[in-house]
Amino acid sequence: MFRARIFVFALLLLLPMVGATATFAAGEPTQSRPADLPLPSSLPLIDYERALFPWIAKRKYVGLGWNRDKSWRDTGPFVFNMSFGIHPAVRMYYSPEIMSWLENGREGAIADGAIVIKEMVNPPSAKYNEHHAALVEKYKDDSEKVAKEMADYAYDTGGLNWTVMVKDSQLSHGGWFFASVYFADKDDMKARKPVIDNFQPPYSPPLGAGGDGMCMRCHASAAEELIFSALENIEGYPGEPLIFRVDESWRDLPKQQKPAFGVDLTTLIEAYLNDPHDPAAMRAAHVAAATASPVDQNPEFTAMFPGTGGVDITRANLQTLPSEWLDHVPARPNDTQHFLTSDNCLGCHGGLGGAPSGVTMFIKNGPDYGDGYNISEYGEWRWSPMGLAGRDPIFYAQLESEFALLEQAGVGDLSGNLGTTCLSCHGAMGQRQLEIDAHANPDLGLDGNNFKPEYVLLHDPLTLEEKDQQIADGTYPYHEYGNLAREGISCAVCHHIAPPERADGQPDYNKLDTYLMNGTTGVFRMNAADELIGPYSDVRQKPMQNAMGITPLHNDYIKDSEMCGACHTINLPNVDAATDQPLPGFTPAEQAILNDSAKNAVAFLKDEFGVTYREPLVQFQHSVEQATFIEWQNSEFADAGTAQSCQDCHMKSNFETLDGTVNIESLTTQIASIQDTNLPEVPNALPHEEIDVPFRDTYKRHNFVGLNAFMVKMLSQFDEEMGLGPKDPMTYATNGAQLSLDTMALQARDETADVAIESLTESNGTLEAVVSVDNKTGHRLPSGVGFRRAFLEVRVTDGSGTQLWCSGCTNGAGVIIGPDKQPLKTEFLDFVPEGATEALYQPHYNLIDDETQVQIYEELTQNAKKEFTTSFVHRVYHPKDNRLLPWGAAEPGTEAFVKRFGTSEVTAAFMKATMPEGRAEHDEGVKAGKDELTYKIALPSGVDAKDVTVAATLYSQAIPPYYLKQRFETAPNGPATQRLYYLASRLKTKGTLIEDWKLKIQGDSAQLR
């Protein structure tokens, strides 16, 4: 086993050598010949691997007379039986195109078809150089015998494997195909049968890729052409490779002659030695980290949601998503595009998990590499709701319901318009890049007006057969955009967003109104394609320029909450409302403002990208469907002196484990791991000042969580079905999903709400408890999509723990039940009492004196027929909205509002969406952010009130029962809806953060004194 490097894919060419300068046996010089291989861009990935990998594994290049290194070399020190190199021991082979470029002084471009091959064996190199010298001595006149036995030794003793670079300028900006070639086992090695990618679960990074970001981690630091190759390393040229320290720990010597005799390094050495980074071990680790998806349905869930109408399907009929490692779009060769996938970023921004590679953006909790928590930009984003937005099974089921409802309303032709609008956030990169490319290159025949949800099922064809099939069904031009869309709100989205601007002819809006009228609902301006913005002014630009043709630039807008508002203020049409009058609760002037904002979006998209997909939607009356950003704006969290931005709360600068055993108040780390001045020296690197990555004491984690633990848990338990791998590619940590869930648990416990029993008294056998809920967030509680809810469970137990009374208790499916253990008639919003015209629901309470009454903080909406709906575009009536306001919220029309915002009619119209409705409209506590209500609880006869405990607990449900019921019944035959039912009905909640389908926020308990 060897301690090779952080990534088998990071092909750090020509790293310094160790020890001996013994050369290989050299015969008469021969004219080297180029490889007779296709270019990577000429074949789909798997077909190309089938051509290249066996050729490498059989060492066909040796017979072509290629130049090679003078000897085996190490890539860093080897001490205490541990390699501190970036790679294991290496020996390089260079195609004639590479040699011509080197002999020309590393000037100009390397020709397509050039190949650099790194043979790699278990370190240190000294054992191979010494073995070679012994063979030369043994077979003095038989160089072929020496070569054969040396090759056998490399295969059998060294575990020979390869990393390869093939030049193809049509692949990406960097123009290289990177590959790792190895054998699965000894039998395959004997047969020279290398592993070929198959992208089957459990998912692991691909062995070959164009413009691979993990390899770029180091190669971007090369001065020219992304390689470090130097003539002094090569046979027949003057000079010697660099040498690193190698001790005697690898030799078969008595203990007394070993380094560090008498020093107890056992634990440390074992930790290092048990962490092999060879390709086979890495693949095996991915397999070992995988767990089987749940198979059995939860009977409590199916009792509540029977799965009728075709929604309940088998695993064989389940629509699954492609591997996350097929989400691969590199920077284009000649002109970098705006959007590229996160695998371009993770090599530098994915963290390092321990010695000897280093600890970068990682919190250790054990000695082994990968023991701990990956808090890198990529690591936490990957398992955040933003990183999962493009794979969110709840979102895609919602889309199917919306399409079905549009059909029922007779406007089914709007499905593409609405779907593309929704995917402008959830599939932001794919949707955006498609409209950009369709507008810039009309000859491509792309339709930028309709981003179909089915595109997320597409990926690069892996074989010619797959390519022919995509061409036949017309999807081939769109697979790149599916790769992008599955990444959700990825790196290149936020780091490309520019501030909104007023269009010509618009009023002289202030900053906030400019945003409200030009920057909501997924409509945002972008900086240049070859620029990405960030918070630091002293970044090292050259590596990113080399790797992707992109320059990182400082721009404080990345720290502005308004940037988040692009997708967190959503202004949507109401397709079943009358178009000749305002929506209920709005004046004609207010309605016109919301409608004009939507029209401005239409005009901008048409002028900028030539798309008109939103145009048919502006015929309807608009209203704010999600208001998280403007809720924050209308709070003391946005005021000078008490300000906390979105980034302050959702991009932590500290780290704490859920159990409190680790608590780091401020994180200091490098924000990128590249071939920098901390790694072993290499020839032909950029100047030190270009690659000296500083440590930052202002590091901000990319955790991006709220309280939607249900979606994260669903994707982590069903990672195989949803195309995700459990093992982190850079740090090898396997707890990424759990870290996301733990961060949610901390946020729920410490930063969401305080629950208190303010007083508890008793009179004539009746308890009276005053319970308060105090919102601690910078927006409403709950916030976001309207179907989120939080509810109070108030439970009364006697001295033995027996339950005597409960308001808000649930069953195992999260359904609120009454004293008869049956679901409350209000739970599914579909029970219409005899003689009534509307379904029952739980109103906002100031007093609760019955177990069937529950305080639920939620927004409830009805369509034009006054039927409760969870549709985003049938929100006509709002009988209830008692979600708690943030501290300092001001009501439009009041003196406090004018003091904060002035007299802007635009601001006032939008801010109506931040106010309560229904009974809560007049509840001063709700409006102040702290609700207080009284529970009157009649105790059973004979119960001593002093033995009774009252417990109040606030729970959150991101997808409450009525929401799920509407999904399963609205579009039961839709594949995304069937997928949601499959996952939800099998989701294991016992012993998890969401046990019984609810997430605990906070609670309190009290007894009579």
Task: Tell me about this structure.
- With 1009 residues, the chain is α+β, with helices and mostly antiparallel strands.
- Helices cover 29% and strands 15% of the residues.
- The chain has 32 helices and 33 strands.
- Strands 25, 26, 28, 29, 30, 32 and 33 form a seven-stranded antiparallel beta sheet that branches. The chain has a six-stranded antiparallel beta sheet with strand order 1-4-5-6-7-8. A four-stranded mixed beta sheet has the order 23-24-31-27.
- Strand 28 and strand 29 form a beta hairpin.
- 53% of the residues are buried.
- The N terminus is likely disordered.
Number of helices: 32
Computed Rg: 31 Å
Please state the structural category: alpha+beta
How far apart are the termini? 66 Å
| Uncertain stretches | 1-29, 260-265
Q: What's the helical proportion of residues?
A: 25-40%
Strand content: 15-25%
Shape: globular
Query: Largest sheet, if any?
Result: 7 strands, antiparallel
Number of beta-strand segments: 33
pLDDT averaged residue by residue:
93
Question: Mind sketching the topology for me?
Answer:
Layout (H helix, E strand, L loop, with lengths): L44 H13 L9 E2 L9 E2 L2 E2 L5 E6 L1 H8 L11 E7 L4 H13 L4 H14 L4 E7 L8 E6 L4 H6 L16 E3 L2 H7 L46 H8 L5 H11 L9 H6 L41 H4 L2 E3 L3 E3 L1 E3 L7 E3 L2 H6 L10 H16 L6 H12 L1 H13 L23 H10 L5 H7 L5 H4 L2 E2 L12 H8 L6 E2 L4 E4 L7 H7 L2 E4 L6 H8 L1 E5 L13 H22 L11 E6 L1 H6 L12 H5 L4 E2 L6 E2 L4 E2 L17 H4 L3 E2 L12 H9 L1 H4 L13 H16 L1 E11 L2 E10 L13 E9 L5 E5 L39 E2 L7 E7 L5 E2 L7 E5 L13 H7 L3 H7 L12 H5 L1 E9 L10 E9 L3 H10 L4 H12 L12 E9 L2
Parallel strand pairs: 15-16, 27-31
Antiparallel strand pairs: 1-4, 2-3, 4-5, 5-6, 6-7, 7-8, 9-10, 11-12, 13-14, 17-18, 19-20, 21-22, 23-24, 24-31, 25-26, 25-28, 25-32, 28-29, 28-30, 32-33
Helix pairs in contact: 3-4, 12-13, 12-32, 13-14, 14-16, 21-29, 25-27
